[in-house]
Amino acid sequence: MWKKTLWVIVGFGLLAASVVTAQETPFEFDARYWFTTLSAETKFTQNNQGTDINLKSDLGVGDKNFPYGRFTFSFNPSNRLAFTYTPVSYGGDSRLRRKVEFGGETYEANIRVVSDLKMHYMRLGWAYQFINLEGGKFKAGTLVELKGVQGEVSLAAPDLATPIDKGGSFYAVLPTLGLALDVNPFPYLNIFAEVSGLPAGKYGTMWEAEAGVKVIPFKNFSISGGYRLVDIEARNDPDYAKVKVGGPYLGLSLRF
């Protein structure tokens, strides 16, 4: 299923890129480092038995920082395509404060549990900034995106006489709508903000927002900093995974 999801996202990108092949296509690559705070809950059942688990308070999963990348095609002053890939990986190793049930296994209070949350999050978006004032000093418009996430939560109790190691996976693909804003008071300074999301009823929801400042000391190089928040819920009742990741980031970008 995840392979089909990946092909949908890649196909959407190729289709959009084919529209601009006849024009000069400025290309930008952003490498960013994200200083994150995690909030996550999950439930994976078997025979309708399972516990709502908080990955921080129940499993001792801690915050972590990691890199991610963004590719952008700006094919005219009002239109751009962007693909962002974010690998997420958190882990915990602590003793349970209470008994939990996960994936058909029971983990008793006070046993040592090693836990992991791994997630691949992708977004492909088209920003159409039809409001363009004072030669590009202020631009705003719509943001249409296709978001995709695939992840896994695993719990292992390696110190038991019969060790337990159980994992539950989740995935979701959702088209979303939003807004994109750029303020360029000087040729070397860009202030930007984006927000997009959409609820999907019983299947969950996906939201993302970011805002920042980019300084452009040279034509093909820039330095950026800002704040990013990703809020994902993938649900297949009664199972679900809720993951909220947010925090400041720093980045460098090259243009070709």
Structural class: mainly beta
Which parts are unreliable, with pLDDT below 50 for 5 consecutive residues or more? Answer: 12-24
Count of helix runs: 1
Percent helix, as a range, is under 10%
C-alpha end-to-end distance: 35 Å
Categorize the overall geometry.
Answer: elongated
Question: In total, how many beta strands?
Answer: 14
What composes the largest sheet?
A: 10 strands, antiparallel, barrel
Order of helices and strands: HEEEEEEEEEEEEEE
Strand order of the largest sheet: 1-4-5-8-9-10-11-12-13-14
Radius of gyration: 21 Å
Strand content range: over 45%
Mean pLDDT: 91
Write the layout of secondary structure elements.
Layout: H1 2-18, E1 27-35, E2 37-43, E3 53-54, E4 65-76, E5 79-95, E6 100-102, E7 105-107, E8 112-133, E9 138-157, E10 164-186, E11 189-199, E12 204-218, E13 221-236, E14 239-255
Antiparallel strand pairs: 1-4, 1-14, 2-3, 2-14, 4-5, 5-8, 6-7, 8-9, 9-10, 10-11, 11-12, 12-13, 13-14
Which features does this protein show?
mainly beta, 256 residues, elongated, two-stranded antiparallel ribbon, 1 helix, ten-stranded antiparallel barrel
